[in-house]
Design brief:
The protein has about 150 residues and is α+β, with helices and mostly antiparallel strands. The chain has helices at about 10-20, 105-120; strands spanning about 25-30, 50, 60-65, 65-75, 75-85, 90-95, 100. The strands form two sheets. A four-stranded antiparallel β-sheet has the order 2-1-6-7, covered by helices on one side.
């Protein structure tokens, strides 16, 4: 029984489908401080972020046994989101809170410990944002006529 795969990805997919079948809006609560989690940091509060994963809110939602990923707009800017399954805390409906919180699983604890062991001393486990688009310059836009 110790070699069982984590149940979280299977339950997440099942609850996601169930919420959609009942015309509810699925929201994920994510631990944004976990390594390899790519979320827009400006919306993180207390190390967590709530993500709307309804089909109308995301593009290219992909859920497998290791992670979920999708593209979405935050404040009008596109962002590629990547959430390891270990970082998923809960899935719930926006309208009535129906859903579930996921219990801790030994496989994810071991995964997090292996990441800590691999990290060099002084390295931060926070989310790196190398691919974030640069914000537009403030001020008056300028156009010129090219002949």
């Amino acid at each position: 029984m110790d070699n069982l795969t984590p149940s979280r990805p299977y339950l997440l997919r099942a609850f996601y489908e169930w919420l959609l079948d009942n015309e509810l809006t699925p929201h994920l609560l994510v631990n944004a401080s976990l390594a390899h989690t790519r979320v827009p940091q400006q919306y993180v509060k207390d190390g967590q972020i709530v993500l709307n994963i309804a089909p109308s809110a995301v593009v290219g939602l992909h859920m497998d046994n290791d992670a979920l990923s999708f593209s979405a707009r935050f404040g009008g800017s596109p962002f590629q989101v990547y959430v390891p399954m270990a970082a998923v805390v809960s899935i719930q409906a926006r309208e009535n809170g129906a859903g579930t919180f996921f219990p801790p699983e030994a496989a994810y604890d071991a995964w997090a410990e292996s990441l800590d062991a691999e990290a060099p001393a002084g390295a931060s486990s926070s989310t790196e944002s190398d691919d974030e688009p640069t914000p537009p310059k403030k001020g008056r836009p300028s156009l010129r006529v090219v002949k």
